[in-house]
Specification:
globular; alpha+beta
């Protein structure tokens, strides 16, 4: 059962506002636009970094594929969809929901 919203595409609209600092157990994201800090686990940090470096919007399946480097399972896609929803609620990305 899907709990995360279904997104047609997500992107980082302000990639120049973010600074990432990698640590052994995660990633800290500094948002220069509002001076906020966000702590992400390693997987979330990698997913956010992929979004920062993409010029076009991506969906959960495409991002999951980029993370696992093979055809993602439905569980992989659901986990990434949940990450996208969290990133959007944190103001890190913008998403367009499917209808």
């Amino acid at each position: 059962m899907t709990l995360a919203p279904a997104y047609a595409g997500c992107h980082c609209a302000r990639p120049g506002d973010f600074v990432l600092q990698r640590w052994p157990d995660g990633v800290v994201v500094y948002d220069d636009a509002n001076a906020s800090l966000h702590a992400l686990n390693l997987v979330a940090g990698e997913a956010f970094e992929l979004l920062l470096n993409q010029s076009e919007a991506t969906d959960a399946r495409a991002l999951a594929y980029a993370l696992v480097q093979t055809e993602p399972t439905e569980e992989d896609v659901e986990l990434v969809a949940s990450l996208l929803a969290q990133f959007e609620s944190m103001g890190l990305i913008e998403c367009t929901q499917t209808r």
